[in-house]
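Troubleshooting: if your tokenizer reports a length mismatch, compare your output against this known-good record of 169 residues.
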Amino acid sequence: MSIAQSLLPELDQEMAGTRKTLERIPADKFEFRPHEKSFTMISLATHIANMLNWGTVTIKQDSFDYAPPGAEPYQELPAASVEDLLAKFDKGLAEFREALAGASDETLLANWSLLGGGNTIFTMPRIACLRGMIFNHLIHHRAQLTVYLRMCDVPVPALYGPSADDTGM
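Known-good structure output:
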């Protein structure tokens, strides 16, 4: 089995749970943040949805510069609605899944670099970047989002088993 084929079931499971979490965001709580240094709820949710695009970039490009010299830096504009957020998520997931399904072991073992202002921030094999900087990073932010939901009295979805709010599997 290829590396990509071994990752696809994990991607499918984690993104199903992520979508369930994003679906629960109440439009009247978009600006909620638990602390002044925290993302707003909609900015955090948009960040999660956009991370799927990073997976595609990691597979299809050799590097990404989030602040390229002489060009505009990478920005994330918050989704305008839950529908917009879910459309962004679904599109990003479809493109990432397709890129991952078509990636060879050679591609996934090749080095990939993150740049900032033309300077290398890190270089690691694509597979390490996908696991650490995409999969794990996205799951980390999804967990933060479940705390936001709890703080706003929004039922938290079951992710790895029943939640206190969602006992049906």
